[in-house]
């Protein structure tokens, strides 16, 4: 059975987030040969982003431009996307499992009186249905789900499904849809950005994470250096955040960010279950810990038993020579 699929694109600082392209790749499986439509909502100037969605695999794109969509509000975006769903009547809607995806999709699924399969890490065709795999119990198990009735809402975990190759020769229509947006109960008046240098943690291919074993704010310096030579980002355990060695925005785990980089280097992190919940799906895990019994070694692909302050500088030297 083929399906018409709508992808809700997401931007940050005026550019499409990678997870949008990954959602288009996921939509290829969901659509089973049906039409894939990219959707992008914002204040103005969205056509180049809509075309980019086509370059990454959408058949055509829709833009909704409105002054009330300058910044994300669940109310404003739910009205805009809801209107497009009413008009286009897609059989499935796919979006990234990001802060915005987690906020917007349940609201829309409730409005259209249907279900939502969130945080999908794998999907495969299975007869008339698509079989979605998602982690449960903080990543200790996986469940497989299908939806047999109603519009299918899906969010996909960033960094799990590879985007299709960009093909700038792909063409498709870009249509603007006018949407009435009523008074919003929440209005964003100002955004105060945290200054974060370098690569975005949730989309990083390499993460160097520090725990309480890093011992101080300055102790994170070699981790930043290692992350830089690897083109990655720095993360942390809650232990390190609680000890004020770094900002909570770096926290990975059950109550922090969920990440799935290609390479995760855990430095001075014991491997508590709540930390593993946020990183155990990383493709390759390296543990650096001076305690050979540390739990991190139970899930690590490579373990280095040693003092992180001796091991990391050696790693940096070796990598610089490659
Ligand atoms: P520790 O457990 O103290 O481990 C430090 C490690 O560093 C040790 O293994 C030690 O051997 C090693 N070490 C010390 N010095 C060195 C050195 N010089 N070189 C190499 N290794 C060294 N935690 C999270 O991380 N994320 C979460 O989202 C999260 N959510 C939670 C939610 C709840 C409800 C609860 C109850 C807890 C949560 N926690 C979370 C906390 C979690 O249980 C652990 O307390 C925390 O992960 C421990 O952090 P840590 O590994 O950095 O510290």
From TrEMBL:
UniProt cross-references to Gene3D superfamilies, sorted A to Z: HUPs (3.40.50.620), TPP-binding domain (3.40.50.1220)
UniProt cofactor(s): FAD
Signal sequence coordinates: none
InterPro entries in the cross-refs: DHS-like_NAD/FAD-binding_dom, ETF_a/b_N, ETF_a/FixB, ETF_alpha_N, ETF_asu_C, Rossmann-like_a/b/a_fold
Record carries keyword Flavoprotein: yes
Cofactor: how bound: Binds 1 FAD per dimer.
GO molecular function: electron transfer activity; flavin adenine dinucleotide binding
GO biological process: one example: fatty acid beta-oxidation using acyl-CoA dehydrogenase
Pfam families assigned to the protein according to its UniProt record, in alphabetical order: ETF, ETF_alpha
Keyword field: FAD, Flavoprotein
Similarity comment: family membership: Belongs to the ETF alpha-subunit/FixB family.
Protein name: Electron transfer flavoprotein alpha subunit
Organism: Sediminibacillus halophilus
């Amino acid at each position: 059975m083929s399906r018409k699929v709508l992808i809700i694109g997401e931007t940050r600082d005026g550019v499409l987030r990678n997870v949008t392209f990954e959602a288009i790749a996921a939509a290829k499986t969901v659509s089973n040969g049906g039409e894939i439509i990219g959707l992008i909502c914002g204040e103005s100037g969205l056509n180049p982003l809509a075309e980019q969605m086509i370059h990454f695999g959408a058949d055509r794109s829709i833009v909704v431009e409105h002054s009330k969509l300058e910044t994300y509000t669940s109310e404003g975006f739910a009205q805009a996307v809801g209107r497009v769903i009413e008009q286009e009547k897609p059989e499935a809607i796919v979006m990234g499992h990001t802060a915005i995806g987690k906020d917007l999709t349940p609201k829309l699924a409730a409005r259209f009186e249907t279900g939502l399969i969130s945080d999908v890490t794998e999907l495969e065709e299975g007869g008339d249905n698509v079989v979605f795999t998602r982690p449960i119990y903080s990543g200790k198990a996986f469940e497989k789900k299908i939806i047999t009735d109603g519009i299918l809402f899906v969010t996909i975990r960033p960094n799990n499904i590879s985007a299709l190759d960009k093909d700038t020769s792909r063409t498709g229509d870009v249509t603007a849809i006018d949407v009435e947006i009523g008074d919003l109960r929440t209005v964003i008046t100002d955004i105060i950005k945290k200054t974060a240098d370098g690569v975005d943690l949730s989309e990083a291919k390499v993460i160097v994470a520090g725990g309480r074993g890093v011992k101080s704010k300055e102790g994170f310096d070699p981790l930043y250096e290692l992350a830089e030579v690897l083109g990655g980002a720095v993360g942390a355990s809650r232990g390190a955040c609680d000890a004020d060695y770094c900002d909570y925005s770096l926290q990975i785990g059950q109550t922090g960010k969920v990440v799935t980089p290609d390479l995760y280097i855990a430095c001075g992190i014991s491997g508590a279950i709540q930390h593993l919940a946020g990183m155990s799906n990383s493709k390759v895990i390296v543990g650096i810990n001076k305690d050979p019994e540390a739990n991190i070694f139970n899930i690590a692909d490579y373990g280095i038993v040693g003092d992180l302050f001796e091991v990391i500088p050696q790693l940096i030297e070796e990598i610089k020579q490659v």
